[in-house]
Amino acid sequence: MTKLTLASYPHMLGFEQLERVLERSAKSGNEGYPPFNIEQTDDRSYRITLAVAGFAEKDLSITVEDRQLVIRGRQTDDSEGRVFLHRGIAGRQFQRSFVLADGVEVGEALMENGLLHVDLTQAKPETVVQTINIRKG
């Protein structure tokens, strides 16, 4: 069986980058922690919300790397000298990645009641009409 790729369609030119983005997104390793929501807040606005209970602002970092929004969390170990009879609250590090389309910009981030909100906006694309002159050969 032949694997269909975007290159298999001769009328779709220049979409190789999209194919690489889809492959990278599939391999990003997001395992389910922390849980998150993505909501559309306006026609061209979105909000990603992560449940980060127990993390302080200083434990979190948000970066954009090669059109990929990366949110990382790393807590410092404050359990020294403490004796836990049961430890059910996860204190592990995490990394969540989201591939951003061209024109999507990361706005502000807000911590509220154990939730990290990251706002995104998408610029309205310009309609470009270009006329190509034909010259004699």
Topology of this structure?
Elements: H1 16-26, E1 36-42, E2 45-51, E3 60-65, E4 68-73, E5 94-99, E6 104-112, E7 115-122
Antiparallel strand pairs: 1-2, 2-7, 3-4, 4-5, 6-7
Summarize the structure.
With 137 residues, the chain is mainly beta. It is 8% helix and 36% strand.
Task: Summarize the structure in words.
- The protein has 137 residues and is mostly beta strands.
- The protein has a domain at 30-77 and 88-124: Immunoglobulin-like.
- 8% of the residues lie in helices and 36% in strands.
- The protein has 1 helix and 7 strands; from the N terminus they run αβββββββ.
- The strands form 2 sheets. A 4-stranded antiparallel sheet has the order 1-2-7-6, with no helix packed on it. It has a 3-stranded antiparallel sheet with strand order 3-4-5, with no helix packed on it.
- A hairpin with a 2-residue loop joins β6 (104-112) and β7 (115-122).
Key features?
137 residues, mainly beta, Immunoglobulin-like, four-stranded antiparallel sheet, three-stranded antiparallel sheet, 1 helix, 36% strand, elongated
Question: What portion of residues is helical?
Answer: under 10%
Q: List unreliable stretches of 5+ residues.
A: none
**Count of β-strands:** 7
**CATH fold category name of the domain at 30-77 and 88-124:** Immunoglobulin-like
Number of helices: 1
Structural class: mainly beta
